[in-house]
């Protein structure tokens, strides 16, 4: 393992520990991870059962917008409909071959039925991992159009899950 990659891994683990989080390393393969570390990229911390991306790393990811970033860090705002019928939006940080998704600034939209007097709501979840087996559909979010909608006033039928018994 190259010294630069080892240092990047140690930094991620140290910052995660300082913030009371767990950490692991996501990479495409060992060779690719080394290649990107050699190019000056820091590796991002992701585990399948726990995600740790401390707030101090957010500024580094935001700085990457507009520059060359490997497709593992898309940094695009997406909308995900899950197999259990939930609607989530957030910034895509990472994905893998099993469609596991890591979202930052995740918001769950809870749309109320027409006969419910309570307003619909947006529930913030922050950093969020969605297992690939729970992804029903995923796509880019038109942020301009999305920003023009008052989601508290939107009413509609409940989207059912895809698993039926």
Automatic annotation (TrEMBL):
Member of which family?
A: Belongs to the snRNP Sm proteins family.
Say yes or no: keyword Nucleus present.
yes
Q: Which gene encodes it?
A: LSM8
Q: Which GO terms describe its molecular function?
A: catalytic activity; mRNA binding
Q: Start and end of every Sm domain?
A: 65-144
The protein's name: LSM2-LSM8 complex subunit LSM8
What does the subunit comment say?
LSm subunits form a heteromer with a doughnut shape.
Per the record, what is one GO cellular component?
Answer: U4/U6 x U5 tri-snRNP complex
InterPro entries attached here? Lsm8 (IPR034103), LSM_dom_sf (IPR010920), PTHR15588 (IPR044642), Pyrv/PenolPyrv_kinase-like_dom (IPR015813), Pyrv_kinase-like_dom_sf (IPR040442), Sm (IPR047575), Sm_dom_euk/arc (IPR001163)
């Amino acid at each position: 393992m190259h010294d630069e990659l080892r240092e990047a891994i140690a930094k991620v683990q140290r910052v995660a520990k300082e913030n009371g989080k767990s950490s692991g390393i996501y990479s495409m393969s060992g060779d690719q991870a080394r290649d990107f570390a050699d190019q000056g990229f820091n590796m991002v911390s992701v585990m399948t059962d726990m995600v740790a991306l401390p707030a101090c790393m957010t500024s580094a990811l935001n700085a990457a917008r507009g520059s060359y970033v490997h497709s593992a860090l898309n940094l695009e705002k997406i909308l995900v409909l899950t197999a259990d019928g939930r609607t989530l939006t957030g910034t895509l940080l990472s994905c893998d071959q099993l469609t596991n998704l890591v979202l930052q600034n995740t918001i769950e939209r809870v749309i109320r039925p027409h006969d419910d007097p309570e307003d619909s709501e947006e529930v913030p979840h922050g950093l969020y991992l969605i297992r690939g087996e729970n992804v029903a559909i995923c796509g880019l979010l038109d942020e301009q159009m999305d920003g023009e909608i008052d989601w508290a006033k939107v009413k509609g039928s409940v989207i059912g899950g895809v698993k039926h018994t």
